[in-house]
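Saturday, quiet lab. Running sequence design on the structure tokens for the scaffold JK sent over.
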């Protein structure tokens, strides 16, 4: 198997950055003073290293959600030869929490793997079937029964302020939404989910 390393960055973690990140992964709320003590540095030194880590985009401070505790359902979907319009929609879809290009280049992706997240299996199926039908594509769906690792994921908190979903759908007009088989798009005013 040949690995394409073309997307890999040239940034390397030095020993200090690695130690700072390790401590923050253990406890993301640790103070700079406590972090400095554990690393035998001043809090000013820690702040400089942390600022550089954030400026370089190596790490990001954000709230992540516990998928198990919230009872969220997940599935993975493989899409062969995705149209550019579908890729654009997936990148803006709040239910598509991860989008990978598994074949081709970033600009000309010939196969996608998408991880969707929603409150119910019905909602996941509704989203995938709608996109499959609209773009006339075959998809292979694998439901995730249990998330073993990681427990916390970057699941977007919905804005609930749009009349249309990013894909252009109006949830109120959808049969699955009307039959309570789908909570609706989290970014719309129609969303009935728990987030």
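Result came back. Writing it out in full:
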């Amino acid at each position: 198997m040949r690995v394409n390393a073309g997307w890999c960055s040239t940034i390397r973690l030095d020993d200090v950055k690695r130690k700072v990140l390790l401590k923050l992964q253990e406890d993301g709320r640790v103070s700079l003073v406590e972090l400095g003590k554990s690393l035998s540095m001043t809090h000013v030194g820690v702040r400089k290293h942390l600022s550089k880590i954030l400026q370089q985009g190596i790490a990001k401070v954000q709230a992540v959600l516990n998928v198990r505790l919230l009872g969220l359902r997940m599935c993975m979907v493989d899409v062969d030869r995705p149209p550019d319009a579908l890729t654009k929609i997936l990148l803006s879809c709040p239910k598509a929490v991860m989008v990978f290009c598994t074949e081709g280049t970033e600009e000309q992706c010939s196969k996608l793997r998408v991880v969707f997240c929603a409150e119910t299996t019905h909602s996941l199926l509704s989203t995938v079937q709608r996109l499959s039908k609209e773009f006339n594509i075959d998809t292979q769906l694998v439901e995730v029964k249990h998330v073993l690792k990681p427990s916390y994921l970057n699941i977007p908190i919905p804005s609930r302020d749009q009349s249309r979903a990013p894909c252009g759908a109006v949830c109120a007009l959808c049969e699955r939404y009307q039959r309570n088989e789908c909570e609706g798009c989290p970014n719309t005013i129609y969303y009935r989910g728990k987030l």
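Notes for JK: The first strand starts at residue 65 and ends at 66. The chain has two domains: 15-55, 65-178. Ask whether to fix the surface positions before the next round.
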